[in-house]
């Protein structure tokens, strides 16, 4: 896990990053700016239980490519889940919370993930562990109104103008952040590489 100090505001941005691309970098940049983060942990996961059967590039390659695409010193590319055999986000967040008292974390995800968030293992627990910032993605803008998570935690939605204070809020708390969107996706990039 990257080093942090008490009182810091830290974003957690996890994914398979298979491959990482400019759309991921844009989400990270928006999160750093709009959430007033001291750090952002770019967490390269060893796998994704919801994408079982899909071929993943080696973890070391995904880490290397992530470091190459994200040059901001506040971004810490890490794959600490692999060394602890963590498969589910809920377990990762519980460990981060336990190991880093006094640090204010916020979970960051693209709006395309909000649509299927209720399929994640113990998704309610995730929402109750740390505040969540959902960053707009093409074709997913309305997910903040229609998703199961958005409806379930409607009472905990915070106005976007409060985003700089989100990490310090008690979970459940979440916001939807509008902004520039990249049309890139890892799925499309893999398809191009495979010539489909």
TrEMBL record:
The keyword DNA repair does not apply. It catalyses: nicotinate beta-D-ribonucleotide + ATP + H(+) = deamido-NAD(+) + diphosphate. GO terms for molecular function: ATP binding; nicotinate-nucleotide adenylyltransferase activity. Residues 12-191 form the Cytidyltransferase-like domain. GO terms for biological process: NAD+ biosynthetic process. It is an enzyme of class 2 (transferase). Keywords: ATP-binding, NAD, Nucleotide-binding, Nucleotidyltransferase, Pyridine nucleotide biosynthesis, Transferase. Gene3D superfamilies: HUPs (3.40.50.620). This is Probable nicotinate-nucleotide adenylyltransferase. It comes from Pseudaminobacter soli.
